[in-house]
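seq:
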Amino acid sequence: QVQLVESGGGLVQPGGSLRLSCAASGFTFSSYAMSWYRQAPGKERELVALVAAITSAGASTNYADSVKGRFTISRDNPKNTVYLQMNSLKPEDTAVYYCNAERRSVGRRYWGQGTQVTVSS
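struct:
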């Protein structure tokens, strides 16, 4: 049974930090690209950050322009966990954040249930 369980969301003041975690189980974590998406009220779900499956060249990352320099995605394969470190948070970062696992070569994609992040004073 595939599970992606997010944690670490909450209420934070502008300029603050949060660290999201996503614990995965039920699939070969190291073979999947892992990403974080977010969806704000009335808006479409958008990609925030992605970390590729680790190869001999390492694990490449990609970020939305709006979070570059503020957010860092990382993965710990032995722990089957992906993280999103969020610094210098802004009110516009308020959204439900979803963990995603994808392996295009086999046509598999999984979603977590989401965790709420609210940035407000």
